[in-house]
Amino acid sequence: MSATTPGAPDPRIIDITRRYWGYATLRPLQHEAMLAGIAARDSLVVLPTGGGKSLCYQVPPVAAQRTDVVVSPLISLMKDQVDGLRACGYPAVALHSQSSRGEQLEAQRAAVSGECRLLFVSPEKLLTPVGLNLVRQARVRAFAIDEAHCISHWGHDFRPEYRRLAELREHFPDASLHAYTATATPRVREDIVAQLRLRDPARLVGVFDRPNLVYRVVQRQGGMGQVLEVIRRHAGEAVIVYCITRRDTEELAAFLRGERIRAAHYHAGLEAEARRKTQDDFAAERLDVVVATVAFGMGIDRSNVRAVIHAAMPKSVEHYQQEAGRAGRDGLPAECVLLYSVADAIRWEGLIARSAAGTDDSEAMQVSLELLAHVRRYATRIECRHRLLSEYFGQSLPQPSCGACDVCLGEIPNAVDASVEAQKILSCVARVGERFGVGHVVDVLTGKLSPRVRSLGHDRLSTFAILKESDQKALTQRVYELLDQGLLSREGGEYPVLRLNAASWEVLRGQRAVRLVPQVSAAVRRAAVEEVAWEGVDQELFEALRRLRKQIAEERVVPPFVILNDATLRELARTRPGTLAAFGGIGGIGQRKTHDFGQRFVEAIVAHCRGRGLPTDAPAAPPPRPRSDDQPRRPPRTALVAFERFDEGATIEEVMAELGRTRTTVVQYLAHWISERRPPTIERWVRADVYDRVAAAVREVGDAFLGPVREHIVTGSGEEIAYDDIRLVITHLSATKQTASAPDGAPAPGQAPARSNGGV
Ligand code: ADP
Ligand code: ZN
């Protein structure tokens, strides 16, 4: 680790970040990385996705008044970056194989004149005579290598053209090299240092945990419906779904379109044109959901992806971290769901064996199998997911509970003793002579008279039909779980058979208990990070500003996130700046953006406030960031005043006027008041007929998220019901325990599952 500078960051640097991006503070390690860049000292910077790597190489050339090169693997990525920088008034150009002759000349002119700060180049273009010549003319002294893991075989995205970057050292012996990656494994890191021949680099390795991501692992049962369920929680927001095969992506996308979701598929087998269209549509927010193979991702810069769903198991934890990491790059909460089934593990094993068959690379196959085993461990262990992921990448997580994974949120039902069931399964494996696969064993156990069972006489075995009350699918799942826990083995190549191992015998002899998780999916709970991200945000204003952003983006032919990101948009909808000066003071808005479209945003905000009798310029309370359950949030002072007024029966409007707060905030106070006071009715704030309709919808679709409830009511009746009303009703229902949160909606009086503090 390089020497870190204690105390305040260099004022020159802050001056630059404020001017171009409106950032007054730096993220962890950004300062150190920038100093290495300015001093032209080699560096290896490893920060998680969304950690702010780009800023690290964007600031040094401005501070040092020079032109630096950024090597980037994908043209679309370069384009987005250059668009984004130009929108901030930052001089940057790109040079790659798709640059037109005119663009090439323009890049040349800008680079040679010295006015350009960053020159983005693809690796193959850089190492051509044209590229090398240009770099020399621009007197480049520092190269940033973005996505540097592409140089390593051990990474998840090896690119041969990256290997050649080692030649840079020969062409430019005096220049510094700065490698950037989000890949956390030490092996890849060392490989980058060796391949690029970095000279005593500053090694800056950040913390990998992403507290804004909520991780869930769900047993896959009829996957499509489960995917739809997650997508419905994010109505109108960006979601990426990953599948293993191309055909899976096509079928799933078609199914989702049938459910009136704006979805498309994406895989490497599509024409370049079709792929580009899908990417562009997704970036421009014309598409909400992309169903893809791993081919989709690196070119995606959309920062407001609110969920990443793995409809099938990825083949390594590295892949998982990389793909799930595409969620929530704007730092706002997002959800990562892995639908797990041992069937996928088995499928991957087959694929790995097949791809190794032609070669004699048994080591590569061993590595692949090992990587796969780690994913299975991640998916099957009932331990904090944030902790498991951090530990996998060699970092520890000090918090006892992350409060942002299915395990810590208490969504996983308690494991139950399943020793007897396991013994029945295992003894059946013994009875059929350890010579049959899962399907046949399940047939025998459930008493299915298949032709094979009959011809082998297995219907006369003592274990025939001893689990006849079990569902075939559920029982298959059980067998898989035994395999996962190592209580049963599976051997043989193409037609694997079930075999007993030492652990199986311990179970059979009653020396070892088996605990399995019941296969009911519990209701999903909202994590604290999810609640806080909307605190004080005027949602209606947010939507209005989002429409304005889209309009401006279309006028300028750039993706919306280039205009302003979602974190900035929510901050605007929270603080409601009524002047250009106040607008420019918001994080994420620099001088150029204030000048270019500040007026339009301010007008929209003022109009919104006027229409609702709200003051502009609400005091900017820093949004709290609770990290774990052991820090209960205290109500702010104004909330206490609001409580007293609600006790007296004041309306929402009265409290808004008195406290000068937005409706959203006051509704939040009211929700807290309801869960504290548990009044018998909330008719004073929500009309009785509205209450009944929301309650009915909650019984249908659960209460974890408001979007689906609202959609359910809208499609049912035509009248739109405000989010605020839904929120209040849900709070009241759970405060007075009139409903269980079971997804089947069957109210179970007296045995409602323990809920976390009412959920709103
Ligand atoms: P990475 O390349 O590491 O995945 P990015 O460079 O794309 O991450 O940054 C992620 C987001 O964080 C971007 O929206 C960026 O503008 C924002 N960001 C970066 N640095 C800061 C900072 N110091 N303060 C606030 N936001 C920042
Ligand atoms: Zn956790």
The strand line-up of the biggest sheet is 3-4-2-5-6-1-7
Our estimate of the beta-strand percent is 5-15%
Q: Whole-number radius of gyration?
A: 28 Å
What is the mean predicted local confidence, pLDDT? Answer: 86
Low-confidence stretches: 1-5, 623-635, 738-760
Shape: globular
The percentage helix is 40-55%
CATH superfamily of the largest domain: P-loop containing nucleotide triphosphate hydrolases
Q: How far do the termini sit from each other?
A: 43 Å
CATH class of the largest domain: Alpha Beta
CATH architecture of the largest domain: 3-Layer(aba) Sandwich
Q: Strand tally, please?
A: 17
Cofactors, ions and other ligands in the entry: adenosine-5'-diphosphate, zinc ion
Note the total helix count.
Answer: 34
Instruction: Determine the structural class based on helices, strands and strand pairing.
Output: alpha/beta
Enter the CATH topology name of the largest domain.
Rossmann fold
How many distinct folded domains?
4
Q: Let me know the largest β-sheet.
A: 7 strands, parallel
Strand and helix map with partners:
Layout: H1 11-21, H2 30-38, E1 43-46, H3 53-63, E2 68-71, H4 75-87, E3 92-95, H5 101-113, E4 118-121, H6 123-126, H7 129-137, E5 142-145, H8 160-163, H9 168-171, E6 176-181, H10 186-195, E7 202-205, E8 213-219, H11 223-232, E9 238-242, H12 246-258, E10 263-266, H13 272-283, E11 289-292, E12 305-310, H14 317-324, E13 334-340, H15 342-357, H16 362-380, H17 385-392, E14 416-417, H18 419-431, H19 438-446, H20 451-456, H21 472-484, E15 489-491, E16 497-499, H22 502-508, E17 515-516, H23 528-533, H24 539-556, H25 560-563, H26 566-575, H27 580-584, H28 591-611, H29 637-647, H30 652-659, H31 663-677, H32 688-701, H33 706-717, H34 723-735
Parallel strand pairs: 1-6, 1-7, 2-4, 2-5, 3-4, 5-6, 8-13, 9-11, 9-12, 10-11, 12-13
Antiparallel strand pairs: 14-17, 15-16
